[in-house]
Amino acid sequence: MAFEDILSEIGEFGTYQKRLTYFFLLPVSLVIAWISMPTYFLIASPDHWCYVPKLSNLSMQMQHQLIRPIKKGNQMDKCNMYDIDYESLSLSEIQAILNESSHNITTRKCDNGWIFDHTYYEATAVTELDLWCSRSIWVSNILTMNSIGMVIGTWIFSALSDNFLPESPRWLLSEGRNEELFNVLAKIAIVNGKKIPINLRAKVKELIRAHQESGIAKATTLEFLRKGRLRTNFLLVLLAIVAEDSGYYGLTLNFENLAGNPFVNFFMLSLVEIPSSLIAYWTIETKLGRRWSNTLFLTSGGILLCLPIMLPIGGSFTTVVSFIAKGVINTALLVTYQQAAELYPTSLRNQGIGISVAVGCIVTLFLPYLSHLGRENVLIPLTSIGVICVIAGFASMFLPETLNENLPQEVHDAQQFGKSAKFFSLAKTSSENEPKAVIV
């Protein structure tokens, strides 16, 4: 008797599961986005430059030309001004000096405050708390502290949620909770309009006994650190997730450094996730499978991010490339999670994915500082993330294919999985390898 046999009797995706999905998971996903994403706009840093009283009545374009030095990367300085005696010189004299030797004129710190561009933001935490120039690093600190708070909050509220949400039957099985597992399965059957299976209590006892005797509960995360194929696969998956999380969150944080409307940039960076998700779900079922799909999308995303430094066409080109790369890397991320779930043995699947996600979260704590460097040159975060993705993409070629394969159930299975596969090979069709193992 397998757990799936009981599920088929009580309903694998009936009213009970649909209620959890449509009335909890989907609404919570929307609320999470509404809570977490506005932070990026609340601490946005509008364009700013030194305030020169004599030139304050001129147009924004004229003030930029007369006040702001040009830095490396063809970006206008936000924290310094030309070292010119603006008060004693006429406008024509200032223009003449700049036309003759603007690149050779020394600069100085702003001595009369700053002017902010209110085209997109009337006020933000940056403008209200003076978090610019020498204090601009605090924006990155705030984002990092926000991420740390989310990690801590996940532990706290996940524990509190146990008082409101039903326990997972699989978790109850792994914990050997006989009576609770019986009650949950009986409730699922009733809500799904199914009859409670005959001898359900006896079947539950048999499931728990078989689970405990199989040794699944005895496996520990130390298995990932021991030599062998499992450790190699674990490290390769870890590298891929670190690269993909860096690309996903790094590009999202970098939206403010891109040319164009920041709200449109953020919208487009989010919108590309819809087609990229559909592409991921389609591609992994083709002959490319999980292995080559991951390699293709992760490497392509990295190369795209390196294009702006190789082809310095302009700001709009960099913005469009960022949109496309975000979608491609999101596709790779979805493929990796599917592949990881199939690579790890049943006894270590949750631990393996959990560790990978945790390491990815730790890496994202440093991404605000990489985005901070993008204020000086937008190509710095793009190229850095691109190089990491290319390296991880090539490394992913050494992961075994899992599509239509007999997947590992125990640790010793994972140590042998994929050893006999040829490097230059495509995924099998379902008819080439029947029957398939099922993830439990």
From TrEMBL:
Annotated compartments: Membrane
This protein's record includes keyword Transmembrane: yes
Annotated SUPFAM superfamilies: MFS general substrate transporter
Residues passing through the membrane, by range: 20-43, 137-160, 234-251, 263-284, 296-325, 353-371, 378-399
Annotated GO CC locations: membrane
UniProt main location, coarse: membrane
Source organism superkingdom: Eukaryota
Keyword Protein transport set for record: no
Topology in membrane: Multi-pass membrane protein
GO molecular-function terms, A-Z: transmembrane transporter activity
Keywords: Membrane, Transmembrane, Transmembrane helix
Matching Pfam families: Sugar_tr (PF00083)
PANTHER family: SOLUTE CARRIER FAMILY 22 MEMBER (PTHR24064)
Protein name (database record): Solute carrier family 22 member 5-like protein
Species of provenance: Leptotrombidium deliense
